[in-house]
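User: Could you go from structure to sequence for me? I need the amino acid at each position, not a summary. Structure tokens:
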């Protein structure tokens, strides 16, 4: 195992900058917020650890890219930020997220609530779920896994056409595996920063996706017509578990972070680290490092303490019973499934430690 180490001065510059204007902006932050963010370069820091590399296949090793400090983020001419007219994140579900309608509806509401806490201050809205056939995307059977896959680029085109006027971005989520082009095996997600659209799959986050027992496999000899979307009818969906929800929340917020202009983090252990495989994605924490947290705070304008409190509240709330959210038939059924947050327990304890620093 290898550790990515940076000097105290390097981390301090990456966070605060040497630009007098950005230094002044930093000094205007609340004292508690600065106290937490300064943990990035403090030797006694016990909240934000270094990045660890476990194999040559890890992202940083196999995808060399220049790091992005706060000044580079702030000065990026292509970066987009929410405006008073465009402060909504839209979520478009493609296919079902659960093996029953009720589970699917609850799952998407859990994700909505999480995004509202993570991107605190923005509105998150749900669009009516659509079947794969509505997107008119290409699809295939993966030669390695024998699972159905849909074309990520075609889904992005569909989302771009559907993007509402008040949307900062629109993101599609699905339990069907994705591929970006014929030569690629798969992709967890794909986004266009210019268009403010993204599509993310949670298919590979099921516990048995790569096992020979996976029930989503399609007969390799089966001929699949490019226009026959009935192959997606009753498509296999993994059981919703706490780990699946945690992995979904990670992917969704990581990829939306890219739409805000945050590049892959190479400073400290952080949600915005790249990941090449599920093992590496699981090592990636749910939280942003101080450098990426300052970037997102700059883009959205939230209060760090209030954001952390909202995340704790999301974990503690047993259901997704958010006022004004949901569909009529879910209310008629009067079903309120408990939110599986067991896997978030450790992170909740970490947030409470951060709140203690901010509120000191």
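Assistant: Here is the amino acid at each position, in order:
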């Amino acid at each position: 195992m290898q550790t990515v180490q940076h000097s105290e001065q390097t981390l301090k510059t990456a966070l605060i900058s040497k630009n007098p204007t950005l230094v002044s902006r930093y000094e205007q932050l609340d004292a508690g917020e600065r106290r937490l963010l300064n943990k990035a370069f403090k030797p006694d820091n016990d909240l934000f650890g270094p990045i660890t590399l476990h194999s040559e296949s890890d992202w940083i090793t196999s995808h060399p890219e220049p790091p992005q400090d706060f000044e580079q983020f702030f000065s990026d001419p292509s970066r987009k930020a929410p405006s008073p007219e465009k402060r909504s994140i839209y979520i478009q579900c493609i296919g079902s997220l659960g093996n029953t309608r009720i589970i699917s509806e609850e799952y998407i509401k859990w994700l909505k609530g999480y995004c509202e806490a993570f991107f605190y201050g923005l509105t998150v809205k749900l669009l009516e779920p659509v079947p794969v056939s509505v997107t008119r995307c290409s699809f295939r059977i993966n030669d390695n896994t024998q699972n159905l896959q849909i074309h990520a680029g075609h889904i992005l085109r569909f989302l771009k056409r559907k993007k509402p006027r008040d949307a900062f971005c629109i993101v599609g989520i699905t339990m069907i595996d994705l591929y970006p082009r014929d030569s690629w095996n798969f992709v967890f997600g794909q986004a266009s920063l210019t268009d403010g659209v993204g599509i993310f799959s949670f298919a590979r986050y099921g516990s048995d996706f790569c096992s020979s027992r996976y029930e989503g496999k399609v007969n390799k000899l089966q001929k699949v017509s490019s226009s026959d979307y009935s192959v997606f009818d009753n498509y296999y969906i993994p059981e919703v578990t706490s780990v699946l929800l945690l992995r979904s929340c990670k992917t969704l917020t990581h990829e939306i972070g890219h739409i805000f202009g945050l590049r892959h983090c190479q400073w400290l252990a952080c949600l915005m680290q790249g990941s090449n495989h599920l093992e590496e994605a699981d090592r990636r924490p749910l939280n942003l490092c101080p450098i990426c947290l300052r970037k997102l705070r700059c883009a959205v304008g939230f209060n760090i303490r209030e954001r952390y409190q909202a995340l704790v509240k999301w974990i503690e709330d047993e259901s997704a019973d958010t006022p004004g959210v949901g569909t009529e038939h879910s209310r008629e059924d009067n079903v309120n499934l408990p939110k599986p947050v067991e896997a978030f327990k450790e992170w909740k304890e970490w947030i409470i430690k951060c709140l203690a620093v901010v509120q000191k």
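One structural detail worth keeping in mind: DSSP finds 14 helices and ten strands in the chain.
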